[in-house]
Structures are given as C-alpha cells and as structure tokens.
Design a protein that fits this description.
Layout lengths: L2 H14 L5 H13 L3 E7 L5 E4 L10 E2 L3 H9 L3 E4 L5 E10 L2 E11 L5 H21 L5 H5 L7 H9 L4 E4 L2 E8 L7 E7 L3 E9 L3 H20 L4 H16 L5 E9 L4 E7 L3 E6 L2 E4 L19 E4 L5 E5 L1 H4 L10 H11 L5 H16 L8 E8 L15
Antiparallel strand pairs: 1-2, 1-6, 2-3, 4-5, 5-6, 7-8, 8-17, 9-10, 10-11, 11-12, 12-15, 13-14, 13-16, 16-17
Helix pairs in contact: 1-4, 2-4, 6-7, 7-8, 10-11
GO molecular function: protein serine/threonine phosphatase activity
Protein name: PP2C family protein-serine/threonine phosphatase
InterPro entries: Bact_Sigma-Reg, PPM-type-like_dom_sf, PPM-type_phosphatase-like_dom
Length: 402
C-alpha cells in the first residue's frame, strides 16, 4: 500500500473509533505502524500551564509542564522533540497536536531506539494532526477530553465562557492568532471571538460588566447577538448596533458589554474598527509599539438604539496587533499601582519574537506578577494577531486610526 493509502486507512480507522476510544485506537495504530510501545495523549489545561494525560476518568496519570521539559518544549515550540530516555532500547518522541492553529496538546510516542529518523518523525507528526482533528470533533459527543483538560473544577460561569469560545488560536496564510483568558477556572465576563472567510477576518474582544454568572450571561447574549448580526452579512457598525439593541432590550441599560470589533480585509490589510467600550489595541511594527487610538463609543447595551461608526487603520506584513480587556490595563497591584501601559510595553517588547500564543500568555503572566498572586481580581483577556497578509497587500501609511 502506498503512503497516501496508508494515511487514508489510518484516518478512516480513527474516524470509525468511538469518541471516547481515540487514545486506545491511536495506541493500536501506532503499535502496528511504528512498533510503538507506549502512546500518551496530553491535552493542555485551561490555564495553559500543564499537559494533562488522557486516560479513563476519574483515574489519570501525572501531568507535565506545558512550557518546560521535552513535552512542554514540543507544545510551546510547535516542533517535534526526540527525548533520549533512561531506557537504551527506546526513544520518546513528543509531537505537537494542533488543529488549524489551535494548540490542543502533545502526542508522546515511545518507539524502538534508532527508529526516530526524519521520515518516522514526519509520519508521526501527520498522525498527531489527524488525531487532533478527531479529538476536536469527538468533543461534541463526549466529555472525556474536556474533563481531561481540568486540573480542578470550573465555575459555572467559566464553563459557559469556555463553551462560547471558538478556540484559543487560529492560523491561516494571512495571519496567526493566539489568545488567553484568566482566571482560567473562574472566568466570568471576558471573551474573544473570530470568524474567517475568503476575503475577510472578523475579530471581537468583549468585556461583560459584572462578575460570575451574571457577567457570563451578559457576555453570552452579547457574543451571540454579534454572531447573529455578522452571519446576516451586514457591516461592522450595524453588527454593533444590533447587538446593542439586543443587550439593551434584555437589561434596559442596567448593565452593558464593552466590545472591540475589528474586520480585516485580507487583500489590502485595511482594518475597519468599532470601539464600543474599554478594550484597547496595540500595534507592534518593527521595533516600535503604539496604541491605536480609536474614538471611544458607548458600550453595547448602555443606551437604547445607539448609533455606531466605523474607523479604519492599516496593517502591514510583519505587524503584530495585541488586544487587551480592561482586566489587563485597568488592574492594580496591592499597592494601588495600575498594570498600565509601561508594564504592558515591556512585556510586548520582550516577547516580540515569540509566537502569538506565548505573547498572550506572557501578558497575563506579567499581570499576575504585578498583582502579586495567582488569582486575578478581575477577568483578563488578551488576543495577539500576527499579520502576514497576501502578496500585493497595500502597504500601510503608518498612521493610526483615521
């Protein structure tokens, strides 16, 4: 059988496996095809600090670091890592498992010593990708993979928010997105969302007023209203206006949702924007870091039938955009010092060459260090987007919003 036929057979057998049986099926397939003696599927936990082994719950193996050690290095670098173990008869290959830019975890495969040649590592990498797609699909029919990601119980508000998200990353030839939420196990009102099409990318960053379940319900309504309006094919300002009406109709202006809406033209790099509240956005171009100043408009749901206007700015190939919620730029330390723009610029400058996922996580880590504890006083959302653009993309004029 040729290589493409083998790959097709493997994918068919993965698809035919019961949703909960994917780890066992993967082990059997890799034993047959590569002589694998041990196969472990690790999924990244909600806080992106640990890689959790997937086994029959409630029993599970020991987690490993998501940013240190061989498996953690494979996860953060998104490259295979071959580990020489204490057993001279075997080698351990750690393979990143990523679906369309959303980093799910790591597949670790123990193979006979000397068999980790480039062709084998490449084949195992393709297998890990195929398995990742099946895990993502199987999550609709079983709780196994969601449960395996948890180091502790989620609050109900956090459960609602995580189910509302599109993922934690997305990659296309024109851009790469990485995003992070904290406190991961008790998130309430912060949310990010995106939708990609043939010619446009729409991104939103939402900060629902309040805490806990009340904030989660508000944000759930806001994000659903924005999606409903977006899927009707209307412009960005009208999307904001319809969502504003939906939130006001439900709450009568008592609570509201601060939202940043962005729509990227994939051909030109022109970005249409509506700033409806407190989220901020920074652009890194070359060695420079600038906050993109947009005209602040009323948050969604604050007043009845608020009109919204779009502004535009441009991104150029190589640009990085970082959007942050008020839980980042408005959080104070125990001494009363705001995290602020200076600290944020330091983190963004230090992580300029790291992938978007790691930059988003670094901003939150810097915020936690600033507050002096593991638990943040408010929700924090960070979305980082690296812009590549398309060949022939019009160069920006270097200006901010216009």
């Amino acid at each position: 059988m040729n290589v493409s036929g083998q790959q097709s057979s493997v994918e068919s057998r993965l698809r035919a496996a019961p949703p909960h049986a994917l780890p066992a099926t993967a082990g059997a397939l890799l034993s047959e095809g590569y002589g694998a003696r041990e196969v472990t599927l690790f999924l990244a936990d909600y806080g992106l600090t640990l890689l959790q082994p997937v086994t029959h719950l409630p029993h599970t193996g020991e987690p490993v670091s998501a940013y240190d050690g061989p498996a953690g290095t494979a996860f953060t670098s998104q490259k295979p890592v071959v580990e020489i173990t204490g057993d001279p008869a075997t080698e351990l290959i750690h393979l990143p498992m990523t679906v369309r830019g959303d980093r799910l975890g790591v597949l670790s495969v123990r193979v006979p010593a000397g068999s980790a040649d480039p062709a084998t590592v490449l084949g195992l990498g393709e297998f890990a990708t195929a398995l990742g797609h099946e895990v993502a699909t199987a999550g609709r029919d079983t709780d196994l993979y969601l449960q395996a990601r948890r180091t502790r119980r989620l609050t109900l508000a956090a459960e609602m928010q995580w189910q509302l998200l599109p993922g934690r990353g997305c990659a296309r030839p024109e851009y790469t997105i990485g995003a992070h939420l904290e406190p991961a196990y008790a998130i309430g009102g912060d949310n990010f969302d995106w939708s990609t099409g043939a010619d446009h990318l729409t991104v939103t960053l939402t900060d629902g007023m309040g805490q806990g379940i009340d904030a989660s319900l508000l944000t759930g309504l806001t994000v659903s209203a924005l999606r409903n309006a977006r899927r009707a094919g209307i412009g960005l300002a009208d999307q904001a206006a319809l969502a504003d009406q939906a939130v006001y109709a439900q709450y009568g202006g008592k609570v509201y949702a601060s939202t940043l809406l962005l729509r990227f033209d994939l051909d030109t790099g022109t970005v249409s924007a509506v700033d409806a509240g407190s989220p901020q956005i920074y652009r890194l171009r070359g060695a420079g870091i600038e906050r993109i100043e947009l005209t602040a408009q009323f948050p969604l749901g604050m007043f009845e039938e608020t009109p919204y206007e779009e502004q535009t700015f441009r991104v150029e190939p190589g640009d990085r955009l970082v959007g942050i919620s008020s839980g980042v730029h408005g959080t104070s330390s125990a001494a009363g010092d705001l995290f602020g723009e200076r600290a944020l610029r330091q983190v963004l400058g230090a992580t300029r060459r790291t992938p978007p996922h790691e930059t988003a996580r670094a901003v939150v880590a810097g915020l936690m260090e600033h507050t002096g504890g593991k638990d943040l006083p408010a929700d924090a959302a960070v979305l980082c987007l690296d812009w590549t653009g398309r060949s022939g993309t019009a160069a920006g004029d270097g200006s901010g919003a216009g």
